[in-house]
């Protein structure tokens, strides 16, 4: 199984400041036949199901504010919130869709400092 | 709009079975796989498997092999997930999600809380 490891487990950031979450996969999630990287970022707010923020490692889902961006390749990925807003308080998960089982990272809790 | 609506909360005794439903609307049900994911209280997300409603093909996580069955009902655009031989550590919120071609679950159902307690 591909192991997904996120860091940190939690972070507290002041409003308007940058938040950075890392995700490392135990093997590459690049699908060579179409050159797509099957790494997805989700946001989960309390009492709600997860919502897609970023797919293909760096493509923002429709309707997601442009303060969210994804980067990385191969096995190392980053989700950045450029200017943290109160509504961004949530737990963020990475997931690989490269192969089954489609494993998740353990989650990173983002709070306001 | 695209929506997945799940069945209501369940309370079961250890050793029993539970069957959770996920009714799709707003899109062609047979055109997208459905994944099932669970989340124990205060814990992270755990992928359980997927089903292709078009042909009934399934792929289950090894952890659940032999205890889980996912089925589709194309006549009602509903996917089902049955988990047998329940244990207390199966207590969790169970979610269904539509699998998108770009490799993400979107949208997700609202979740179904399954509580296993004697």
Question: Please, could you describe this protein's structure?
Answer:
The complex is a heterodimer of chains A (113) and B (118). Chain A has 113 residues and is mostly beta strands. Chain A starts with a strand and ends with a strand. In chain A, β9 and β10 form a beta hairpin. Chain A is built from no helices and twelve strands. The mean pLDDT of chain A is 97. Chain B has 118 residues and is mainly β. Chain B has no helices and eleven strands. In chain B, the strands form two sheets. In chain B, strands 2, 4, 5, 6, 9, 10 and 11 form a seven-stranded mixed beta sheet that branches. In chain B, strands 1-3-8-7 form a four-stranded antiparallel beta sheet, with no helix packed on it. Chain B starts with a strand and ends with a strand. The model of chain B has no long low-confidence stretch (mean pLDDT 97). Classes of the chains: A mainly beta (113), B mainly beta (118). The interface between A and B is medium-sized, with 26 and 23 residues.
Structural class of chain B: mainly beta
Our Rg estimate of chain B from Cα atoms comes to 13 Å
The radius of gyration of chain A is 13 Å
Shape of chain A: globular
Distance between the termini of chain A: 36 Å
Percent of residues of chain A in helical segments? under 10%
Q: What profile does the largest beta sheet of chain B have?
A: 7 strands, mixed
Q: Write down how many β-strands of chain B occur, each being a DSSP E stretch of 2 or more residues.
A: 11
The total count of strands of chain A amounts to 12
Largest interface: A-B, 26 and 23 residues
The helix tally of chain B amounts to 0
Strand content of chain A: over 45%
Main β sheet profile of chain A:
6 strands, mixed
């Amino acid at each position: 199984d591909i192991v997904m490891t996120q860091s940190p487990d939690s972070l507290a950031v002041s409003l308007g400041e940058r938040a950075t979450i890392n995700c490392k996969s135990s093997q590459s999630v690049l699908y060579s036949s179409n050159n797509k990287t099957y790494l997805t970022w989700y946001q989960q707010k309390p009492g709600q199901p997860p919502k897609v923020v970023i797919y293909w490692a760096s493509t923002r889902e429709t309707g997601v504010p442009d303060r969210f961006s994804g980067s990385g390749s191969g096995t190392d990925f980053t989700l950045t919130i450029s200017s943290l807003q109160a509504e961004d308080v949530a737990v963020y998960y990475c997931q690989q869709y490269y192969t089954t089982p489609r494993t998740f990272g353990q989650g990173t809790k983002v709070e306001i400092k | 709009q695209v929506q997945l609506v799940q069945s209501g909360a369940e309370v079961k005794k250890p050793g029993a079975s539970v069957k959770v439903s996920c009714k799709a609307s707003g899109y062609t049900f047979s055109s997208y796989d459905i994944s099932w994911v669970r989340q124990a209280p205060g814990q992270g997300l755990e992928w359980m498997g997927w089903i292709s409603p078009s042909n009934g093909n399934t792929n289950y996580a090894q952890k659940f092999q032999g205890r889980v069955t996912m089925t589709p009902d194309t006549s009602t655009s509903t996917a089902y997930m049955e988990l047998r031989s329940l244990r207390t550590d199966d207590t969790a919120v169970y979610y269904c999600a539509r699998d998108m071609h770009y490799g993400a679950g979107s949208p997700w159902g609202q979740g179904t809380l399954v509580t296993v307690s004697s």
